[in-house]
Amino acid sequence: MLAIAGGKGGSGKTTTTLGLARAFDGPVLAVDADRDMPNLHSMAGAERCERETPAVRPHPSDPTVSILSPPSEADDDAFEQWLRAVAAEHHHTVVDCPAGAGPDAAAPLRVADAVVVVSPLCVPALRDAAKTAAMARALGTPVAGCVVSRARVAPDSVEELVGAPVLGTVPDEHSPVLAQPTVRAAYRRISNTLGRN
User: Fold this and answer.
1) With contact defined as beta carbons under 8 Å apart, do 164 and 191 qualify?
2) Of 57, 89, 118, 161, which sees the most CB atoms within 10 A?
C-alpha cells in the first residue's frame, strides 16, 4: 500500500493518487482515506456508493483502476482495521490520505508500506510536507519521496526542506488536469522512478 500524503488540502494529493493509479501497471485500487471530505470518486468521475457499505467502483475511463470510498461510521481503530483489510485483499493499492497530522491522517500512514508526500512549490506548503514526512517516519513508514505539484522544475532545496528525494514534478495545467498529456507523462515518469526504488 502506497500512501499519498501532504500537509494541507489542495496540495495535489487526490490528483497524484489518481495520476499514479493510472500510471502504474494495473490492476490498481485507489482508496479515499478522507472520512470527512472524500472526493476521490468525484475527481475520478466514478459513481459514488453509500458510505455505510463501501464498495469498489470501476474508474469510468481506465479499466485497470478501481475506486473505493471510506466507510462513514467507523472510529479510528475500526478505520485502521478496515484499511489493513483492504491492503491485505488488494495487492496494488494507492491511498489518498487526509491532510493534517491528526489520528485520521495517521491511520493510513501506519498501514502503508511507503509514503509519497505531495506539495506545491511554496515554502509554507513544503514545511507542512516536511512535517507529514516526519510523522510518517515517526510511525515507522518510509518516505519514498516527494512530488512537487503545479511546477515544471523543483530546486535542490526542496529535497533538503522535505527530507526526501524529489520523485518528479507535475505541471500546472487546465482542467481536466489528468486528461492533459503533460500531466499523464509526468505521472508515468514518477511511477517509473518509484518502480526503481
Assistant:
1) no
2) 118
